[in-house]
Automatic annotation (TrEMBL):
The keyword Hydrolase is annotated on this UniProt entry: yes
Family named by the database record: Belongs to the metallo-beta-lactamase superfamily.
Example of a GO MF term: hydrolase activity
Signal peptide: none
Organism: Gordonia hirsuta DSM 44140 = NBRC 16056
InterPro entries according to UniProt: MBL_superfamily_lactonases, RibonucZ/Hydroxyglut_hydro
Cofactor section: Zn(2+)
Entry keyword Endoplasmic reticulum: no
Protein name as catalogued: Metallo-beta-lactamase domain-containing protein
Domain of life according to the entry: Bacteria
Keyword annotations: Hydrolase, Metal-binding, Zinc
Length: 365
């Protein structure tokens, strides 16, 4: 395949390692022992992170609403008759000031959804869906560059791009390529010339040799000609700035990571490990089936499981997220967990309208 990122040992990294969140592969015992360790570590990290300060500003930008199989998004729990639900993908823009006065800008989930649609799963789904139905279910809201313009941020001011994982992502227009791209009919220059992509080293290694369970969700060939030096591989959890952290949460993919931010309303966590805040608190959900399924199966969360790479690890990672996040000030039954792709009600999808939504994270210091 020619994927260039199989050896990233010499690339620089970023952030200060979080010592309270250790590698769970070193924990003796099975998944249950790891789950107990996760709860202890999550409480310790939550306490220290709350004292790390806050970023200057956080803005949330809607990108696109699209269909997603109900059996994936609400794994085994939903009794909705709708085969598809809708999720809205959003970008979070975080700005902070370093101790030396340097300003930083991080974009979390800056998906190029125009190219993301060519991910094998979504490309196949689109080919099978009549245009009139697709046009009702797929609703673009804005572009990454358009939102940044509205926020007064120039592309050359962006320091970091970060995704919870690289499913569906095509980064060529963001970080450039080393050669002409025939499918784009251009040799794209980097829209973000100074930005580095923060990614878990595990995911880069996994993308170099995808398992069949992973292949429908990645576009590995689009990484063939991207510059390796545009990446900042990290191993585990790191503090990126005051009140900003990348926390390793493996399971949904081997190198999954979550954004954690400390704000005026407390600590928020964001990833795609679940698609609704109520998936962390299914006992309060009015979605058909969720509360009963949680009781019957004695599971306290509902996975987003389009890939089942390491399901027990994903469950444990969600418990870590659940332990870290503060309660919502809008409704204390739920947590300040913000799905990077959030369940969105639609008349076309009966039985999938969420009980509770966040819609955005907003913060100004």
């Amino acid at each position: 395949m020619g994927f260039p990122l199989t050896d990233v040992a010499d690339l620089p990294t970023v952030g200060d390692r979080v010592e309270s969140l250790t590698d769970l592969t070193e924990v003796e015992g099975g998944p249950g022992a790891k789950l107990a360790t996760v709860r202890l570590q999550g409480r310790a990290f939550r306490q220290e992170f709350a004292a790390s300060g806050t970023p200057d500003r956080i803005d949330t930008c809607d990108l696109i609403t699209l269909p997603y199989p109900t059996r994936f998004g609400l794994f085994r729990a939903s009794r909705a008759i709708a085969p598809f639900l809708s999720i809205t993908n959003r970008m979070i823009v975080i700005r902070w000031t370093e101790s030396d006065g340097r300003k930083r800008v991080l974009l979390f989930e800056p998906s190029d959804h125009e190219l993301g649609r060519y991910t094998p799963y979504f490309d196949t789904l689109s080919a099978r869906t009549p245009d009139v139905i697709e046009n009702r279910m797929v609703r673009p809201h804005g572009t990454v560059l358009g939102h940044l313009t509205a926020l007064g941020i120039a592309p050359n001011e962006v320091d970091y791009l970060m995704f919870d994982h690289l499913h569906t992502q095509d980064l060529r227009r963001w970080i450039g390529t080393s050669s002409y791209q025939a499918d784009l009919n251009e040799h794209p220059e980097a829209a973000f010339p100074n930005a580095k992509v923060i990614v878990q080293r595990d995911e880069l290694a996994g993308m170099a040799d995808l398992h069949p369970l992973q292949k429908p969700w990645y576009q590995p060939d689009t990484f063939r000609d991207v510059p390796p030096e545009a990446f900042l591989p990290i191993d585990g959890s790191v503090i990126l700035g005051p009140g900003v952290a990348a926390v390793k949460t493996p399971g949904h993919v081997f190198g999954n990571q979550s954004l954690v931010v400390n704000t005026s309303t407390g600590i928020w966590v964001s990833s795609e490990n679940v698609i609704a805040a109520e998936a962390l608190k299914p006992e309060h959900s009015k979605l058909p089936g969720l509360a009963r399924w949680s009781r019957d199966w004695q599971q306290e969360i509902v996975l987003n499981a389009n890939t089942i790479e390491t399901t027990a690890d994903q469950y444990n990672s969600i418990i870590l997220e659940k332990t870290i996040a503060d309660r919502s000030q809008k409704d204390s039954r739920f947590l300040q967990f913000f799905p990077s792709s959030e369940l969105t009600g639609a008349w076309t999808n009966p039985g999938t309208t969420p009980t509770f939504t966040h819609g955005a994270i907003s913060h100004t210091a």
